[in-house]
Each structure stands twice: as structure tokens, then as C-alpha cells.
Amino acid sequence: MVHNHPLDQLSGDEVRAARQAVLNARKAHVLFRNIYSVEPAKAELIKFLNAEHAGTLSPETPRPPRRARVQYDVVYDDRSHEYMESIIDIATGKEADLRRVDRGVQQSLTVDEFREFNNVCIESDMFKQAIKDLNLDEKFEVAIDPWPYGGPDVGEVTPRYTQGLCFAKLRHENPDTNHYAFPLPIIPVMDTYKKEIIRIDRLATGGTEDGLASGTVGEKVLEHCRPAEYVPELLDRPVRNDLKPLNVLQPEGPSFTVGDDSLVEWQKWRFRVGFTPRECAVLHDVHYDGRSVLYRLSLSEMTVPYGDPRPPFHRKQAFDFGDAGAGRAANNLALGCDCLGVIKYIDAMLVDSEGNPSLSKNVVCVHEQDNGIGWKHTNFRTNRAVVARSRELVVQFIITLANYEYIFAFKFDQAGGITVETRATGIVSVVNIDPGKVSPYGNVVSPGALAQNHQHIFAVRIDPAIDGHANTIVTEESLPIPMNPKTNPFGNGYEVVGRAVTKSSAIHASPFTNLTVKMTNPNKINPISQRPVAYKFIPSPSQLILADPESIVAKRAAFAHHHIWVTKYKDHELFAAGEFTNQSQKEVGGVADAVARNDTVENEDVVVWNVFGLTHNPRVEDWPVMPVEIHQLHLRPADFFDRNPALDVPANKNLSSVEVGRDTDETCCHTDVTTNGSGLVQAAPTTHLQGTGSIPMTDVNGQ
Amino acid sequence: MVHNHPLDQLSGDEVRAARQAVLNARKAHVLFRNIYSVEPAKAELIKFLNAEHAGTLSPETPRPPRRARVQYDVVYDDRSHEYMESIIDIATGKEADLRRVDRGVQQSLTVDEFREFNNVCIESDMFKQAIKDLNLDEKFEVAIDPWPYGGPDVGEVTPRYTQGLCFAKLRHENPDTNHYAFPLPIIPVMDTYKKEIIRIDRLATGGTEDGLASGTVGEKVLEHCRPAEYVPELLDRPVRNDLKPLNVLQPEGPSFTVGDDSLVEWQKWRFRVGFTPRECAVLHDVHYDGRSVLYRLSLSEMTVPYGDPRPPFHRKQAFDFGDAGAGRAANNLALGCDCLGVIKYIDAMLVDSEGNPSLSKNVVCVHEQDNGIGWKHTNFRTNRAVVARSRELVVQFIITLANYEYIFAFKFDQAGGITVETRATGIVSVVNIDPGKVSPYGNVVSPGALAQNHQHIFAVRIDPAIDGHANTIVTEESLPIPMNPKTNPFGNGYEVVGRAVTKSSAIHASPFTNLTVKMTNPNKINPISQRPVAYKFIPSPSQLILADPESIVAKRAAFAHHHIWVTKYKDHELFAAGEFTNQSQKEVGGVADAVARNDTVENEDVVVWNVFGLTHNPRVEDWPVMPVEIHQLHLRPADFFDRNPALDVPANKNLSSVEVGRDTDETCCHTDVTTNGSGLVQAAPTTHLQGTGSIPMTDVNGQ
């Protein structure tokens, strides 16, 4: 593979070269965690991108050097590990930089560590005894979900730990039987490097009447539990048979193109899809119609603290990007993306623990979809309606974190808008609860299974480049004006008050003043409105982290205390909760520290972090797999263009649509068979409406 | 047409019978406004519906009598009007009730009044002089948009008025040239019944420097304005040619049925689509899988106050349901709905000013759409992904109010959810502004055209029937617990505090406490969670009305001061801002008055009103037709079911989807041709990817 672009992922050969360089330099037992491309410094990359956009790229254009970041442990003879990072210059094979990281911090978990945790548990006498004490029925085996250890308690000094939530799984011919229906009230804790179970935490199983006490873990903790299957072949009721196919066909193919270097072009949009093991898909250099909008857009972090105060549930707090890595947890989508229409998949280059390249197929998908009416006006004088549909381009990835799934999508529309969508789905985290009890800390979603109340708090990192890199963030609020003869004689007036953010800041959402965040370029004035060109968004006023500010849970997620953080751009400052979240006791190097630098951010290279979330107090309907909970962040142009950018979207009638109409014979429907603009004949199906009964179809597509 | 159901619209014959009954009774000159079916009293209707759901309907089942509400003016010889309402018993042709309405209130505007306003202006010497004073270029003619007069000022006693926003329209061979680009700084006011222009209000055209003063209306108020066309054939740039067709095909037809009596059945949902001239589509008797969810669901009211304090702009305040009537303003959708897939249209029975039936075709559309992934889980042990798409049923209508459009949709999903969606689009209301000036009261979106800041505040009326009619509304908030050894030793715990609404109340949204409104049935307990069955929603914390509480603007929209109103059910109490909004000076008989009754609403027949809005400070991108601004209200089951109701949605791969894949030859894409569950062969198109260039297609559907 020839690498044309500095934002390309590493090739297999480049991974191998970086691996070898580290092995040569260390001459030790190395356990590889990640090898991936180092994003060039912005100052360097901009020069290249400017030449690219100006159309002046040539073989002589200086290119930022290709560099790999290699993250690995050196394993010493005493089984101790030292975590290091090397920056390898690919062209020379030289180690350009070596960073020996303080042993007090922990890198994210790897799949190998997950696997090992399971093995260590199974062979641990302590664990075996704990399971024996539970006196499980013969029909069960044990299934363990490895989790990050959460934040150690005040004063607790921990080596690298992994903890596990344990479940009983029916011995079943079907390996996809759902073990989450049978939660076991123990959490084993492993010393990760020593590969030893050092403790088994016993979990409370009580209800409201038991307070924080452990409840009465009975002899038969699972007797009252019952299966909760979700794979179709195990369902206890038939699947619906009245859902008829709805097919999206794109007879002329998609309207987008994806180049080998992950350059995506669609409807005046042009951007690159990058990938990192931690963030998964990252968007770079987002342009609309030749104008710069964003330098970089990424999901930065999320934390999921559980609100059950009974220890050790305070350590159920995952940082799914920092503790696990969204890129490494990403689904291979051909297996189950099941998007409609024409789909393009993008692969990701990962490595195994030996440092060998391992291509993860189909990690990101790109497709188009219809999102209803985009704009419409009917002239009531002539009855002429002009209506344009809204087509969207979706760049999507899906991550699985043990029981839970997140679906992340960047959606581009034809009106210059970008939406960052998150969908939460998967299986809610449950713990055992005694028969007949209910709990203030969650909801019983299945007999014996308490789904604990929790929050999901996300951070999106927006690196704007609104017609250039010097931008100013402005907050705008709509405020009442008291009725007065001079400025508001009839009391209907209100004012829009804008404030430029001059210093790096944390800002709260304020829905009742309609607080809007504008990312402006004060150096470029819209000639029509005479206001600076801008993109804007209204930050969702989600509930922020509920944990006590003095708690470890809250301190390690300082980012979760404000909806907006405005910081000055700094190379490689990408993670809202800091670089090392796994087993952290407080946020270090995250947005709070960045804001504390008190940088000037007016007319500067500025970064905006948007924090939003979902307080999830589960419903029975969230079981056994929850319907998606959707959140959308909308970035929209505000005086960036000279009109509605979607005004030139063709307002054609879609000729494949069919009306279930009424003819003289009310039981028969008419059919449109018409010619579309491209000269192709679209044969629409014939429908026959029979009273209020079902509507059988004859497919006339030549089949 | 045989009428089977008490919720059916009137037939043409019924309209004629009602009309004749009124003419017989009044023996006067009658100007008809509306004739439509009277919804039976709930107590009566429930008996019928219960029999219907029990399957015990028979010819002997008592039916509520068919009744028509006839709204009309009696026009006296002195040209004065008296507004009356008759209730006509259809079977007997008798006037069951007559209501002579106080002349101090005004019924909504009719299309005829709109038309007359235009004629009266054109013939008015005062208006002609005002236009002459503007010294318009020969190339223009005048176009007038009739508006409701807004709220008269304190102490102003008004007969029925209509006001008009005036524009210049290019004399053009194309009647759809956009006159809104040329706003004229006058508002004529008509005495509606006398058909006389009684005043011409002169509008300020100044900018920031002019304050409330009128600005300097120049000799040539339009010289700096420029065309802003939106109909495709008049665009000054070509439409996009790179948007390829995206077709939704339903080869086996839709999954829904719509009966003659507008009974809709789809995916365990069953409800009736009713229609009124004021509310447009109304949903009745909404059931899921045989269980009652809602008795009635409707858009109740909206108000659009403008925030420009310069008089007379304080009278730019429309109540689009009460002043105009959403049903009468509804688009005939076949003209421009352009939904995808298989669409069923529903007609509406209206009347002309003679009281004759006038069928408005295709006012409501029903279709299915895909809304992305509905739920997904991947078993990381086996890599088995199970994913179900979310299919939605959409019941949609679109209203045009002069310059502006609203798209309203009720969406049903397979997980028991109902979404009420509003999309705002159309042309923003603009007024003239002097050359080169900008204004604090809006944004210059086109030279000479100031789009004024305004709000849209909507009210949705939800009449729940959660497993029956005795329901209790509960608010739930998630609140922090200070860290303390006894109940929250590590500080991660939080509590969910529920409060039953015992008396009719107004409630504010509270996003930072995650305030959730639960509509519960305290008499039915979910056997799994042991909590009352419920539906819930999180009220959007939209900005409420900004006008000074003492202003007429605010007083006539008391409903716009709170997000949630909880009232005791009362027959025919349907309108959040009261029955008569046109020219009102305060809200009478709206939700505030209903709450003031201080009714007991616990375990009672209760109604919930949700108010939400959009503060719209226009962008240049909103011109000349604005991209949709979308708001969604989600009603979701909360412990209503015993599991995720969508668990039985088939998790099949959609076989018509195509992967733009990579084979050994990177320029060629592979094609899936596979068999779907129904035995039909879906031939997917073949794509040929040529580098990053275009992707030509061969349609293989036998054509």
C-alpha cells in the first residue's frame, strides 16, 4: 500500500518496522499494547494541508515525517512491568523519543488481559471456593466479565488490578445464551501482573429494607432468577411475522466516494476518516465547498459511574475510551451493522500483543440515508409546493464493552450541518437481588436481577477551523428586557447578549437563556449579516455527574462537571479525562488542567469540548437488550454561508414512492410508473388494499 | 359512506344535514366557518370503546349520537356579525344546542377573510396612497400576507381586525417568484366586518443606531434589496447534480393497514386518526398489544411572538392553531409531501363559507420508515452480533401559514415508544431595514431584509390512559446524596426522588435534576419491578416565553410560562391557550384556568400538557427557505411491559443492502445476491468503484 497522506493509518509494513525498532532498542521482553500513527504537529500538518487545498501539492512539498507511537510494557524477570512509549521515525527506523511512564498510572486494558483474567480466576483456589460457597445448580457454569478496577479508595495503593463481574451461564448447546440473567454476588480482583486473585469482594444482595448492608445472600442465590434470552432462536415467543421488508436501493450507486487514503467526498463535504485505538474513527480537515470548518472532530471520552452506594459498587465506573479504547472495542460491522443502502466499510490497523499488525475489518461504515423533509415552502397563492428531502452521510462505528454497546455516528447534511450522534444499547449491568425485594439503587428488571442506576457522560472534542485556525468562541443568550417605555414599551422585546470567551474556561449549559455556543472567525465577516462567520451549537443541558465532588468517582472525572470547556489548542491534548484513566484517583492532564493554564483563547487556535450525558435509571423495557437511547449534538452554520446551503438540493419527487390510493374501487390502489430524471424507468409495486385487512403485494420488479 | 365509528369525521351528507339544520333554525344570512364532528363525551365513548376492545360490539351496542358542531356568523343588515355555534343532532336534524358567543372574542381567520383582506387593501385609497408614497419601481407589484392582528394594546377596544405584512413582488412570468425578499415598511389594518382599511401602521426600518425610532425610510426602500428565489427554475445557480437516487421500496407492501374509519394498525399498535379543523390530525384510543396507552394525543396550540420591541411589531404574535387552524392550513400532501416508500393519505372534510362540504385531499400521510439500529448486542465471547433495526410508523401533516411551514409527525416505534416531532421550515418573517444597517432585534439575512428574532412555543396535549383512565402523574428527579458514612460512604450514590402530583399543577422542566414525568397507573403494578405501570417523558427544557409577564403578549399565552401542566380531564377542554386566541388580550379557558380549578388529579382521569419551544434568532442560512429545525418529544414505556417490546423484532440482515467492498482487485466491488426470509430473491445492484471517482451502476432489476 502506498501512503499518500500524512493522516493515513500505518500500513502493515510500517507497523512491523516500528515493532522491530522497539525490539532493537529495548532488547527485552516486550508486551505490545498499541502501535499507531503519530498525528503530525498541527503547525506542520497545516502547511501540507494548505498546499493540498490550494492544489499545489507536488513531490517536493515537504511532508511531515511518518512516525509511529508504540505503547508497550517491558516485562522484567520479577514479573513486574514498566510501561513505555516510543516514537519511531518510520523512514529511518530510529527511535525518535522514549518515554518511561510513572508506574503509578495504568494504561488501558487489553484483550489479552481480559482473557488472562478469566484463566486466572478459573484456576484460583480463592475463586473456586467462592463459587463453591454459592452452591450453584449443576445446570450452570461461571461466566466472568472483566472490568477496569475503577478508582481505588483514598489511601489505597494499588498495583495494576482487574476486577470481574460474575454470572452463571446455563450449560446450553447455544453459546449465546444470556448469562446476565444470573448475576453472582461476588467480584474477584486480580493483580494483573502477578496474575493472582488477591481478593473476592462480596456483594450486597439486599433491598430497600437492608440499606447498605449486604442483604441475605441465600443458599441458592439464583433460584429466583430466570432466563432472559435475546438471540432469536432462544426467544420464548415467536418473532413478529408482520414486518414487511423496507429496502433502500441506490440504483446509481452512492453519492459519496471514499479514497484509499480515507478521503471522503460527498455533497460539497470533504474530510478524512482517521483511526486511533483509543478514539476509533476521527474526522480530520473537514471542509465544505472548499472552506475549512473543522480541523478535527472526535469522541474524546466517556465515563459511566454507577449510583449504587453499597461498596464495592463505587468502583463500577468505566472510562470506555481511556480504560478500554473505543477503537479496540469496535465491532466488525459486516457482522451486524446491517445498515441500509450502499455501504462502504473502512478497516483499522491494530496489533496483537507480539506487536504484529492485525487488520480489524469493517470497523467504520459510511453510508447515506434519508432524514425526512429538509426544507419546504408552499406558496399559498399558487399552491406550488417546493420540498427538498434531507440526505445525510453517516460515518458510524459501534463499540462493545462487555455487556454494553454504543453506536457513534458523525452525520453530515446538505445544509452545512454536522451531527454527532450517540446511541446507547446493549445489556444493562445487573447485580443479584434477594427474592421479592426492590431497591432504591436501581430497578428489578428480571427476577433476581437489579439494574443499577447509573450515568453515561460523554465528551466530544471539537477542534474548529472556521475559515481558518484563529477562532473566537462566543456564548449567546436570549434574555428578557423588563417592559419600559424607552426600550421595550409593549414588553415583547428581548435581547441577544453575546460574550466572547477570552480566557480558557468551563461553561455550563443554560437552556432557559437559550445559551448557544458560537465558534466564530472574527477576522471574516459575513457580507450579508455583517457578523463574523460561525458555526454554532446549543449544548444539551444534560445532568452532570451526580457523585459528591469530594468523591474519587467525581475527582477522576473532572470533565464531567461542566458542559463546555474552551481550551487553547495544544498538540496531542486529546483526552477530556486525561491520558491515563484506568485506576486513576483524579483527572490528570484532562480538560480541567488545560483550562487551568488560563490561556488566552480569543482569536486563537481554540478547542471546544462538549460534555453531555444520560442519567439512566433502568426500566424493565431495557431488558434484556435495551432499545437505543439517542443523543444528538448539532453543529450548524451560523452566518457562515450566504444562504441556506441546501437551496440547490434538487426538489424532485421521488418516483419510486407509491401511494396507497383510492380509486373508484376503494379496494384497489393505483400505481405510479414514471420516468425519473436519469431516464431510468422505476417500476413501482402494485398494492391491493383489501378493506382493513392486510395488504398483499405483487412484486413487479421482473421477478 | 357508512359510518362505523363514533370517531369518524362527518360525511358529506352529514355536513349537508348539519348545514341545513342551522339554516332552518336561523333563517338569516349565515357565513359558515366550520362544520365538524363533535367528539362524544368521554364517559359515553369509553363504553363503546370498551365493547369494541372486548369484541362485544353488536348492532345493539349503544352508540354515542352523531353530532355536528357548526361554527358560523350570522350577518346582520348593518354588516355586523354575531358568532354562534350550533350542535346538530345528525339523526334527527335537530339543533341540540345553540351558543351565542360574546362579541368581544374573535373566532379564527378563514381563507375567505384572507382573500377579502387582499381585495379591500387593493381598493383602499388609504392603502393606495401608502404604496404610492413608497415610490416603487415599475418592476414591482404588491403582495400582501394577511396576519391575525395580535393582541390589542391595553385599553384598545377592537372590533374584528386583520392586519397585513406587505411585500413587493417582481412582475414576473413565474408566479412563484419570492416576494419576501422585498419587504415594505407598512402594515394595513382592516376592520374585518366593515371591510375597511382603518389604519396604515408605518414600520421602523432603522438599525442599532436608531433605537425604537422609525429609522430613515428612504425614497427607495427596495433599492438595496435583491431577489432571493427558491423555486428551482429561478435559482441563480444550478441545482446539485451529484445526488444519486435513494429509493425506499417495500416489495411486499406496507406493514400497516388503514381502514375506512381511519383505524390504523401496525406492529401491535392500534389507534384512530381523527381530524378537526383546528388541530388537524388527532390520535384517539391508542393501544399497544391490546393494552390502552393514550385516550387522545394532539397538537393543541402554538404561539409565535416576535421579539422586536418597535411598535407595532408587538402585534406580530400568531397562535397558529387558535388564530388560523392547523387543519384548515394543512397542505394537500400529494403535492409535496414526497415521503419515501409506500404512503397512505387521509382526507379531511372541511366546508366552504356556504357550509358546503369540501373534501381536502391527502391532508395526513401515513408511512413507514427506518430509524437506524433499534437495539444491538454483540457477545464478545462468540462474536455473535444480534441487531434489530428500528422501524417507525409516521402519521404526518404539514401546515402553511403564509410564509412559514410546520411539519408535525406522530411516530410510533416497535419498542412501545411514541414520538411527537415538529419541524419548523418555510420562509422566516422579514421586515425592511435601511441599507448598511444591522439591528439588535434580528439578523439581516438578505440586503434590506431583517429577519426578526422570535420564539415558537408549542403545546402538546396528552390524555393518557395507561391501562385505564385512572392515572397518577409522578415527577422523578435524580438527586445527589452528600458523601456520608451511613448512606453514601464513597460518594458515588445518588437518589431518585418521585413525587405524585396530587392537585392540578404547573411544573417546570428541570434538566439538571433529570426531571422525568411519569404517567402511571397506580392500580396496576409491574410484576417484575413491583412498580406501577407507566409511560414517561423528559420535558425539553426549552426557553419559555421571553415577553414581560405583564405584557399583553405574555398574558395571552399563559400556557407558555410552564413546561408541564397537569389538569383534570374535562370534556372539550382541548386548547392550551383557550378557545379564542384571535385578538385576545389574555388567555381565557386555557391550561392556566384549568389548573386554577385546583382539582384532585391523583388516581384520576388526568391530562398532561407539554410545552416546548424554539427561540429562533435567524441565521443567514435560514434564507430564503430555512432548513428544518427539529424538536422531538418522546413518550416511552417505563415498567409498562415485562421486557423490551422490540425484542421480537426480526434481527434479519437486510438483503437489499450492498457493500462497497474490496476484492483482490481494489477497483471492483462485490455484490450480495442472496435469498431473504420470505423466499424472494433480492437482486442487489452491481457497483464498480473507479478509484475515488464516480460509481456508475447497472440496474439489474430486470429492466
What can you see in these coordinates?
Two copies of one chain form a homodimer. Chain A has seven helices and 37 strands. By secondary structure, chain A is mainly β. Chain A has three domains: 12-100, Nuclear Transport Factor 2, Chain: A (Roll), CATH 3.10.450; 107-236 and 429-442, Roll (Nuclear Transport Factor 2, Chain: A), CATH 3.10.450.40; 256-427 and 454-616 and 625-638, Copper amine oxidase, catalytic domain (Beta-galactosidase, Chain A, domain 5). In chain A, the strands form seven sheets. In chain A, strands 10, 11, 12, 13, 14, 15, 24, 27, 30 and 31 form a ten-stranded antiparallel beta sheet that branches. Chain A has a ten-stranded antiparallel beta sheet with strand order 16-17-18-19-20-32-29-28-25-26. In chain A, strands 1-2-3-4 form a four-stranded antiparallel beta sheet, with helices on one face. The two termini of chain A are 42 Å apart. The interface between A and B is large, with 204 and 203 residues. Strand 33 of chain A pairs parallel with strand 16 (342-351) of chain B, so a sheet runs across the interface. Chains A, B: Homodimer.
Task: Classify the beta-strand content of chain A into a percent band.
Answer: 35-45%
- In angstroms, what separates the terminal alpha carbons of chain A? 42 Å
Task: Kindly identify the CATH topology of the largest domain in chain A.
Answer: Beta-galactosidase, Chain A, domain 5
Shape of chain A: globular
